[in-house]
Amino acid sequence: MDSGTDKSSDRRRFIDVNSRVNIVRLISILATIMCVLMYLSYITEIQSNLAGNPVPLIQPLTMMLDAMLWAGYGWLKKYRDWPLVISNVPGIFLGIVTIITIYVH
């Protein structure tokens, strides 16, 4: 087989650089939105805590610590990973509020 033909068929199998950048950008936007929505679901936990039905501590505590680690990781990378930071900051604050409302209701 001609090596020129092999190379051209190999190139078609891969996404070009511009398309790859656009796909990664779209995935980062969607992942950021989904992560923020996940953390916003803790508002119902906060409401439950304030209504006198506190939730167990382990879930909001681990969620908050996980959000802190991921936000810190995104912040400390050589090139800041803003989707990672932005998507996890709400988790830190909502985790703190959820934990506080477990004990103050």
Commentary on this structure:
With 105 residues, the chain is mostly helical. 81% of the residues lie in helices and 0% in strands. It starts with a helix and ends with a helix.
Short summary of the structure?
The chain is mostly helical. The protein is 81% helix and 0% strand.
What is the number of beta strands? 0
The structure class reads mainly alpha
Our measurement of the CA-to-CA distance between the termini, rounded to an integer number of angstroms, reads 75 Å
Percent helix? over 70%
Pfam family, one: MtN3_slv
Transmembrane segments: 21-42, 57-76, 83-104
Protein name: Small conserved membrane protein
Keywords: Membrane, Transmembrane, Transmembrane helix
Set down the secondary structure blueprint:
Layout: H1 3-13, H2 17-40, H3 42-50, H4 58-76, H5 82-103
Helix pairs in contact: 2-5, 3-5, 4-5
